[in-house]
Design goal:
With about 100 residues, this protein is α+β, with helices and mostly antiparallel strands. It has a single domain (about 5-90), classed as 2-Layer Sandwich (Alpha-Beta Plaits), CATH 3.30.70. Helix content is about 30%, strand content about 30%. A 4-stranded antiparallel sheet has the order 2-3-1-4. It is globular, with a radius of gyration of 14 Å. The N and C termini lie close together (about 10 Å).
């Protein structure tokens, strides 16, 4: 079953651009991973500190395996230090729409 997380991150004041850089750079580790269907980093147009990350994976286990890669840890450690608090993760279930083909 596909696995989707909406991640809400609040950067410390003035740190949003750096956090986005870290997220985009670390996301390159998923480029060759066929289990990662979408990794999208977005910034809020209304809040200068708010970042959204949308993850769509083939399943939860593949997502966990990708996050456990040792080369990802330095990115995570640096980004966490630049956040106002822990990321909020919202687990959702996709049901359809452009760009998404439900599993059969």
């Amino acid at each position: 079953m596909t696995y989707v997380l909406l991640n809400r991150l609040t950067a410390l004041p003035g740190q949003r651009d750096r956090v986005i850089e870290i997220l985009l750079e670390s996301g390159k580790l998923f480029d060759d991973n066929p289990a990662c269907l979408i990794y999208l980093v977005s910034e809020s147009v209304d809040d200068p500190d708010l970042i959204w990350v949308t993850d769509l994976w083939t399943n939860e286990q593949e997502h966990a395996r990708a996050l456990a890669r040792p080369e990802l840890k330095p990115f995570i450690d640096e980004a966490i230090r630049l956040l106002a608090g822990p990321p909020e993760q919202i687990n959702v279930r996709p049901v359809g729409g452009k760009g998404y083909e439900p599993p059969r």
